[in-house]
Amino acid sequence: MTDAALFTPLTIRGVTFRNRVMVSPMQQYMAERDGLPNAFHAQHYGRQAIGGAGTVMTEALGVTPEGRVTWHDLGIWTDEQAETLKPIAETLGAAGAVPATQLIHAGRKGSVGRPWEGYNPLSEADAARGFPPWPTLAASAAPANPGWHEPRAMDEDDIARTIDAYHAATRRAARAGFRFLEIHAAHGYLIHSFLSPLSNRREDRWGGDRAGRMRFLLAVTEAVRAAWPGDLPLSVRLSCIDDQPEGWTLEDSVAAACALKALGVDLVDCSSGGLGERTTTRMIRRPEGYQVPFAERIREAAGVPTIAVGLITTPAFADAVIREGRADIVAIGREALFNPHWALHAAQALGADPGFSDWHPSWGWWLEKRARAARAPAQ
User: Fold this and answer.
1) Whole-model pTM?
2) How many other C-beta atoms can be found within 10 angstroms of the C-beta atom of residue 277?
3) Which of 69, 137, 147, 203 could form a disulfide with 106 if both were Cys (CB 3.0 to 4.6 A apart)?
């Protein structure tokens, strides 16, 4: 055995994560029109459940119908949706992972097609196929990109209804059996559109200076924390920088993290970007762990645990992030799609599980036997 930091337990409130590996929320775009999970989701999350991660977070769940990104996203705006998510949470928990989920309102980046269908705003052609565009909401009536649909600037009633929707969705997530919850406030979606001065042009109490632009995030967080059980952890995903001139900065994120911590947020999930042109389908060369410095800075300056994300693929790098105190959890996204057993393989690579004891016993028994046979002297 080794002292691999990546495989040390972490306890937050009343929840203990068996290790520091998290499978990130990743939209699968496979739901039907009603936002309900189906056989694909059962298989997908079943694969992730037995992969050895300390926590597995489902794709982001829309808190309202218009809060989805596409027609094919999962939702949690109805009790029926919460009921159908229960088996997924149970599957994750039974395999030893903390069952987690994320809440989203897509804002002005909603009403688009799936990535492999162009990821563009829905059009009349999509309506003819049964997937009409829907009106979107944002901090200000400014399109996410040139030529995109123009969102409606939210009024006080819209804001109040949306905060209530987050509160109700949180209660449903708890009833569904999730034990770790995250608010998606990044990547140009609704909450981020309030935070960034590039997208928030309001002159009322929900805009203006940083305190005004943070007000919506903090109101949502307060509503979510009030509805989420006190013994369960809550995180917020931030785009720590807009990476654009005059945009949201890392120091803004430090200030937000301090305010979130005061409201009972336990972790900050540190991502970046998302305003303007989508980069999801673009080929951009980035180094491994390119966003880890954001997690390190917020952890140090705000005194709040952080989740590091961003092309983390190798066990040695992930372990170093934890061992060096740069973050408290490492999130694996697309690498977990490529290799659902990434955490189990990482434990092998780091010497944390030489006997395959972390694998399901029906597999581990065979694999340990194979390993012993490989070490046996030739006859």
Assistant:
1) 0.96
2) 11
3) 69
pLDDT at residue 374, as a whole number: 85
DSSP-H helix ranges across 267-314: 292-302
Q: Which amino acid is at 192?
A: H
pLDDT at 323 over 60: yes
* Marked catalytic residue, from 45, 166, 189, 290: 189
Alpha-carbon distance of 300 to 304, in angstroms, equals 8
Sequence letter at residue 342: W
Do 252 and 240 meet the contact criterion of CB atoms below 8 Å apart?
no
Q: For 225-239, b where at least 16 C-beta lie within 10 A, e where not — what string?
A: bebbeeebbbbbbbb
Kind plus residue range of the DSSP H or E element containing 182: strand 180-185
Decide: 57 and 169 in contact? Cβ < 8 Å.
no
Nearest C-alpha neighbor of 330 from the set 357, 354, 295: 295
Domains of the chain and CATH, by start: 5-375 (3.20.20.70)
119 catalytic, yes or no?
A: no
**Longest Cα–Cα distance in the chain:** 82
How many Å apart are CA 286 and CA 260, to the nearest integer? Answer: 29
Token readout for 246 is 């005059």
Contact 244, 196 (CB under 8 A): no
